[in-house]
Amino acid sequence: MKRGLLISDTGPIFSLCIIRELYLLETFFDEFFIPEAVWVELTKDKNTKFYPEILSLFKDRVKKVSSPVTLLEKLDLGESEAITLYKDYKADYLLIDDKKARSIAEEFGIKCIGTIGVLIAARKNGLIKELRPLFHTFLNNKRFYSKSLLNRILLEFNEKVLV
């Protein structure tokens, strides 16, 4: 079931924290790292209720990029460093949700997976019983996923769509 090495951007980590499914990274990937810029974004607010979980899981998984970050004109620093770290480590997957950043990463031949892809894998493997409550939590917590996409996925799993 493990899928090799994963490099992650910030957004999916926050999304997985909000729905209490961050453990899925350890379940599905042999190893996972984040670049320093993502670490800074994740730990900026030490008062967030997710801070202890993030600190525990990622404090020893922060890596410095070895080559210059060249995508800053198009992406934020975290996304740029995540793509660079993916290349540095010859990773298997980049966990990224931002549509523009994902598109740019895929142009470089990077194999991307998003939060929703991780949740689909978890549902297929019986680790999650229902996706609907998780999707509902996303929408109530300003996580920006397409409602039509979420509903298509719910229909595939014979779950009630979001209204």
Description:
There is one protein chain. By secondary structure, this protein is an alpha/beta fold. It has a domain at 5-116: 3-Layer(aba) Sandwich (Rossmann fold). 50% of the residues lie in helices and 10% in strands. The protein has nine helices and five strands, in the order βααβααβαβαβααα. It has helices spanning 10-18, 24-28, 36-43, 51-58, 77-89, 99-107, 115-124, 132-140, 147-156; strands spanning 5-8, 31-35, 62-63, 93-95, 112-113. A five-stranded parallel β-sheet has the order 3-2-1-4-5. Helix 3 packs across helix 5 (77-89). It is globular, with a radius of gyration of 15 Å.
Beta-strand portion reads 5-15%
CATH architecture assignment name of the domain at 5-116: 3-Layer(aba) Sandwich
Separation, N- and C-terminal Cα atoms: 33 Å
Mean pLDDT: 93
How many helices in DSSP terms? 9
What is the CATH homology-level superfamily of the domain at 5-116? 5'-nuclease
Task: Evaluate the radius of gyration.
Answer: 15 Å
Percent of residues in helical segments? 40-55%
Poorly predicted regions are: none
User: Count the strands?
Assistant: 5
In the CATH scheme, what's the topology name of the domain at 5-116? Rossmann fold
The computed structural class is alpha/beta
Q: Give, in spatial order, the strands making up the sheet with the most strands.
A: 3-2-1-4-5
Main sheet overview: 5 strands, parallel
Q: Indicate the CATH class of the domain at 5-116.
A: Alpha Beta
Helix-strand topology string = EHHEHHEHEHEHHH
Shape: globular
